[in-house]
Amino acid sequence: MISQMAIDFAEKEIRPHFMEWDESQYFPVEVFKKLGELGMMGVLVPTEYGGSGFSYNEYIVVIEEISKVCGSIGLSVAAHNSLCTGHILQFASEDQKKKYLPKLASAEWIGAWGLTEANTGSDAMRMKTTAVKDGEYWVLNGTKNWITHGVSGDVAVVLARTGELLDSHGITAFIIERSTPGFEAGKKENKLGMRASETAELIFSDCRVHESQVIGKVGEGFVQAMKVLDGGRISIGALSLGIAKGALDASIKYSKEREQFGQAISRFQAIAFKLADMATEIEAAEMLLYQAAYLKNNGLKCTKESAMAKYYASEVAVRCATEGVQIFGGYGYTKDFPVEKFYRDSKLCTIGEGTSEIQKLVISREVLKG
Ligand SMILES: Cc1cc2nc3c(=O)[nH]c(=O)nc-3n(C[C@H](O)[C@H](O)[C@H](O)COP(=O)(O)OP(=O)(O)OC[C@H]3O[C@@H](n4cnc5c(N)ncnc54)[C@H](O)[C@@H]3O)c2cc1C
User: Fold this and answer.
1) What are phi and psi of 202, to 5 degrees?
2) 353 assigned to active site
3) Pick from 162, 309, 290, 155: nearest CA to 222
4) Is 147 close to ligand 1, i.e. is its CB under 6 Å away?
5) Closest atom of ligand 1 relative to the 83 alpha carbon
6) Which atom of ligand 1 approaches the CA of 79 most closely?
7) Is 144 helix (H, G, I), strand (E, B) or coil?
8) Which residue in 171, 216, 218, 309 is a FRET match for 275, CA 20 to 30 A apart?
9) pLDDT tens-place string over residues 58-112
């Protein structure tokens, strides 16, 4: 039922407009409000806080079905659910949860999550944004880059340095509302793909945040962020799976219709074997994803498994989208067919929430422990 709801929504509300949004880099806030009404912006949030109260299985299905049609919307749904909302859900106080989760789950408020900075992406621990205590307030200064919903987000969870450089307990997470003086949006990025998902800077200039906005304890932010990413990586895996399946579905259809040398191109083994590879890799990615989801649903450690799922699924998305363009030939190189957009969008999956290289670092660290 959830899968059908996501499919119906994507066909009715996203498919007719996604190319227009892509071309103009328009972030369709109204679509997220409608997704909120259907419970898709608070998939993992318990019902007592106004969410849907589902598990990672339903969450994967929602992101996958939306991403089969448009990766940008899938990415924004994933970032809102897993990062901002996910951080508050996992680590905030009861008062903070009661205040923010109902607004986020209904999409009355759009959420952002700021870890990355211009010079600290993979190496986030070297962040330069600082928070200095002044009475009951923390004063934040610095700039976060590449933040999904950096302009339109109504609230952001922001990681800032409160201790020594390179101290994993020297970073703290804050909930910061858009209206807070000293907090503004900066430059919006002009991107290769995922163009309808807004990506922008968050700028903090003597931004005073009350101590009640700290999530958990001072100094726990980095450790919290790494755990948030364990779940977030499952969502990027689901985004990747949707893009890969979208590219495969389009390629199967086209290869049966397109004729060359008097027959459908699907009858050429060179094309049929591409479809076989795509289908096999997609199933393997799906298994990895559900394995990570199983662990996460049962409160078990899933650092290695979610990194594996994200790493493999994202590389599969890029391979499937690339083969999709090849199967479409010249038509695949135009904006008249969906595969060029899958091709552009897929690349983000091997970069966001930890590049493929960083996933391999995480996986190798875990396997070497044993
Ligand atoms: C569309 C989009 C949305 C995003 N949304 C958010 C968001 O909402 N919030 C947020 O905080 N961030 C967000 N990000 C940032 C994203 O998480 C970073 O871009 C990503 O972590 C990589 O960091 P970087 O871009 O600085 O690359 P770098 O860290 O500079 O990496 C450059 C290259 O070096 C490699 N590399 C780096 N370190 C190592 C190493 N130790 N070993 C081997 N190779 C290495 C990388 O794999 C990569 O190939 C977003 C990014 C994009 C593009």
Assistant:
1) -115, 125
2) yes
3) 162
4) yes
5) 8
6) 8
7) strand
8) 309
9) 999 999 999 999 999 999 999 999 999 999 999 999 999 999 999 999 999 999 9
